Amino acid sequence: MQALEERDYFTDYEILKDPYAFFEAVRAKGPIYQPPGRDYLIVTGFEETLEILKNHEDFSAIIGVAGAAAPLPFKPEGSDIKDQVEAHRHEILGGDLLVNYDDQQHTMSRALLSHLFTPSRLKANEKFIAEYSDELVSEAVANGGVELIKTIATPFVTLVIADLLGVPAGDRKIFMDAIENAPPPGSLDGANDFSAEDHPLVVMGSYFAGYVADRRANPRDDVLSQLANAKFPDGSTPDLMEIVRLATFLFGAGQDTSAKLLGNSMKYIVDQPGLQDQLRQDPSLIPAFLEEVLRLEGSTKQTARLARRDTKIGDLKVPAGTKVLVALSAANRDPRRWEDPQALVLKRPRVQEHVGFGRGKHVCAGAPLARVEVRVILEKFLEYTSNIDFDETKHGPRGARNLDYEPSFIIRGLAELDLKLTPAAGFVARTPAAPAVQAQAAAPAKAAGGYSTAETKLGALLADPAAKAVLDKHFPGVSSDPRMGMAKGMALRTVQKFAPGQFTTEALDALDAELAQLTPQ
């Protein structure tokens, strides 16, 4: 039988759904271990993890999304491969995303987020968080139970960040559906092709492209306008698509991490004896509880780094080109750092030093928002209930739970969690307020006589065979161009700002003349 530590972390469903025994088996081999037949190291030690995450000179974040098992698109040569990394950045999954940036590129783009998660901004957003969580939890308690992940967690965190960024209400359902219908990042079930038309980042990116272009032309008093018109620290103006990628990734990554944190927290609230009563009696303990959940079962299991110069981890020599799986969830259970590391200890000393949100310059930008939104909704759950339990018909009895986790090498989170909720004494269900998200997106605007390149979204043109034919007549091959995936939420006049050479005013005028003769479907 193959030893546990020799099994493949990236393809073994059993390990991906419950990685902790695997990481402990790896830890027994030392804080740094290279599995037989693998071309990457696994780091489980806390101090070693900090060393890597803080060493931005020697370690590149370029493989943070792809993972340590993914092959490099080049053969590393020499003791310093920085130039090779940058020359092949576009060939590496997620190479153009903030989480994978290095050096000045990362510093410049990260600076654009400096105004998004300030205490004053979060305080203003907290009103929406409180009102929406109150609405969701009140309805769930009145119904006697709820499936937490898809019914509450995903829509809740999605709409919280949608409210923060100013995503129009009519588009929010599209975002929710795109996220809900796709596996999480790093899943064996797919969703790792960032060019796929239905990938959440592509779907949302097409809309954010329109939002950003509009906010630059017509600034408003909202966060998205601030982001769209922000300057790099050197005073230069970011490319429009850099802002689009930044907003899209922030939205997608933030909601998934926070939704899983809520589910992971609820698991301990239900099954840790006496915990929910303790938190009900003293809600001020909830922030400390969340920090301990982030340490013990944070939403991000691992990240990855690529040694771009000959370096060392501790006393181990690491050649340039070495890939490293940084096991955050293992570092947070390192017995050399944490006493009784497998146990949830509510008032654990120095628990804030965990690496659940990473460390160094790549520490999660949305961590302050995640802490606020999950704290607030947990307060509502505890306030409105006298008891929270799992539906035993779905998850089995206490002590023999059947919990299904997402098979992702990145995300640690439950696929579903069915709760039974006993109302608190005196609980009265609130009257639902106006919905925070419309049942469906508003139909794209059209000109009086037909379609219009100034108002009709590209997606609507491509969905109508007659309009699609006219579009291809004036712009041959555009309907099958994969680069158009990010543009489906924009009108062609907006797309023109990104590609003025491809979509000239004269050509768009000619297209308008024919589109106006069509009857929109």
Can you walk through the features of this model?
- The radius of gyration is 24 Å and the shape is globular.
- The chain contains 20 helices and ten strands.
- Helix content is 43%, strand content 7%.
- It folds into two domains: 113-423, Cytochrome p450, CATH 1.10.630.10; 458-515, no CATH class.
- The protein has a five-stranded mixed sheet with strand order 1-2-8-5-3. A three-stranded antiparallel sheet has the order 4-10-9.
- The chain starts with 12 loop residues before the first helix and ends in a 6-residue tail after the last helix.
- The chain has 521 residues and is α+β, with helices and mostly antiparallel strands.
- A hairpin with a 6-residue loop joins strand 1 and strand 2 (40-43).
- The longest helix has 32 residues, at 240-271.
- Helix 6 (119-142) packs parallel to helix 15, helix 7 (148-165) packs antiparallel against helix 11 and helix 8 (169-180) runs antiparallel to helix 9 (200-217).
- The chain has helices spanning 13-17, 20-27, 46-54, 82-87, 103-111, 119-142, 148-165, 169-180, 200-217, 223-228, 240-271, 275-281, 286-297, 328-331, 367-384, 392-395, 458-463, 465-474, 492-498, 505-515; strands at 32-33, 40-43, 59-60, 145-147, 303-307, 311-313, 316-318, 323-326, 385-390, 418-423.
Map the helices and strands.
Layout: H1 13-17, H2 20-27, E1 32-33, E2 40-43, H3 46-54, E3 59-60, H4 82-87, H5 103-111, H6 119-142, E4 145-147, H7 148-165, H8 169-180, H9 200-217, H10 223-228, H11 240-271, H12 275-281, H13 286-297, E5 303-307, E6 311-313, E7 316-318, E8 323-326, H14 328-331, H15 367-384, E9 385-390, H16 392-395, E10 418-423, H17 458-463, H18 465-474, H19 492-498, H20 505-515
Parallel strand pairs: 2-8
Antiparallel strand pairs: 1-2, 3-5, 4-10, 5-8, 6-7, 9-10
Helix pairs in contact: 6-7, 6-15, 7-8, 7-11, 8-9, 9-11, 11-13, 11-15, 18-20
